[in-house]
Amino acid sequence: MVLRLRRNTRMTNQRSPEEEELAAKQGELRWLEFELMSKEEQLGVMKEKLAAFEERYDRVMGALNAELDRWKERLARLPADQFGKISNRNDARQSFSPNQESRPATLEEVSEPGSSSQRLKSLYRNAARLVHPDLSISEKDRPMLEQSMKIVNAAYAAGDEKTLQEIVQEAEYSPDSVEGAGVGAELIRILRQLRRLRMRLSAIELEMTDLSRSTLGQLSKRVDGAAGEGRDLLSEMAIELQGRLDGLRRRFGDVVSPAGE
Fold it and tell me: Residue 67: exposed, middle, or buried by beta-carbon count in 10 A (0-12, 13-18, 19+)?
């Protein structure tokens, strides 16, 4: 009797292959959720750091760059013979202008970059309508949709039909659309959640890469590198630009002065 009871207990506790798969995917889901939370924190820190750096840059270089722009505008209006030996009117170096990410287009403004494939265009339109930020239900969903739209645009520009198709499928077959209960339905929901998390992680990685490669991000890296050597690169840039402006005043002060001086 005891032996039979133990056998029944083992059979009751034994999970089916589907239940084993579901348990494994649930563990993977928990891990990806933790990884996503970590990546979102990293992205937030990166954005805060770049915003602080941009404010610092504007404090140090903003007025000097504005003055340089005024000089360039006034010098460009002078006849060529006023420049003497100067062969290039852009004698002063180009002012730095941090990249600003443009706002997402409205749903009606979704454009179609050039493409030779009608299938690619169709996939792009479908994907754009499914993930466009204007379709967000709440502000919490909007950042994810903005990044998804960014991936859509990048995939279209690269002619990547596979990625566009995956995005369309992901949007059409969300976890919320799965009906029913039981192991099978729950497993499908989990698989779709995993796919959504992977897309979000890819979007964050793309955004972090873009921020790092932007003009602002590259300059921030240079400034940090110089600080490690005990140098203040922004102050050095300000001194250099101030010297160029002083040279312009000495050379062309009797011909033209920037507006407002």
Answer: buried
| Cα distance between residue 18 and residue 184, in whole Å | 7
Q: Which long-range contacts (CB under 8 A, 24 or more apart) does 224-233 make?
A: none
- Over residues 58-116, the pLDDT tens digits come to 999 999 999 998 888 888 877 665 555 444 444 433 434 444 443 444 444 444 444 45
Contact 168, 123 (CB under 8 A): yes
Confidence class for position 174, pLDDT limits 50, 70, 90 = low
Residue in this structure with the two tokens 């950042």, named with its chain if needed: 143
**Cα 203 to Cα 46, 150, 209, 210, distances in angstroms:** 15, 8, 10, 11
Over the stretch 227-248, which tens digit does the pLDDT of each residue have?
Answer: 999 999 999 999 999 999 898 8
DSSP string, 218-258: HHHHHHHHHHHTT--HHHHHHHHHHHHHHHHHHHHTTT---
User: Which pLDDT band, with edges at 50, 70 and 90, does 142 fall under?
Assistant: confident
Q: Which amino acid type is present at position 205?
A: E
CB neighbour list of residue 230: distance below 8 Å, 6 or more residues apart: none
**What values do phi and psi take at 133, rounded to 5?**
-55, -30
Q: Which residue has the tokens 């920037």?
A: 258
- The token duo for 124 is 């792009």
Instruction: Kindly state the tokens that stand for 85.
Output: 């030996």
Of 16, 68, 124, 20, the C-alpha closest to 244 is: 68
Q: What is the mean pLDDT of residues 5-26?
A: 70
Length of the chain: 261
- Rounded to whole angstroms, how far apart are CA atoms 190 and 25? 7
Instruction: Label residue 91 exposed, middle or buried (CB < 10 Å: 0-12, 13-18, 19+).
Output: middle
